[in-house]
Specification:
single chain, 179 residues, mainly alpha
Length: 179
Amino acid sequence: MFIRSAMERSSTFTAIPGIGGVVVGLIGLVAAGVSARQTTADGWLGTWLAAAALAVIVELVAMARKANRAGLTLTGPQSRRFALGMAAPLVAGAAITYQLWTVGSFTVMAPAWLLLYGAGVVTGGMFSVPVIRVMGVCFMSVGLASTVTPPGWGNAWLAAGFGGLHIGFGAYIARNHGG
């Protein structure tokens, strides 16, 4: 029992699905295109929230499939640590998004989302393969860059982050970390 427990604590969560990341990136690119055509800020926000919900479903299904193929479980201590590391910044992002929506301030949502998602990936990535932490830092870098450009560029930054970074890192993970 002691040896198994020690091994679980020292192992990394490797069920991050590369193919799922590519699909999520495609969802991000579609969301950027659809949201750019919205005539209201609420329509823009609704598009991105729907894309986020779909992306979460895709990632959870892809994680479960990859873990199953590898004979891993998604209920072990490493998985719980990964999820907890991701959850705190994502919950903060949801709360900030709600508050920004209530005051009608949509222009800072893109930087907030990119920065907080990146923080979640870095934090959750502490229990995964190193490339996950690099991906988180890249998301945070895109989020920081988006803070110094005109607010109208937010959608392009979201496409670069949630589209481009997911596709690029997803392809790398699929090629180098088992799918």
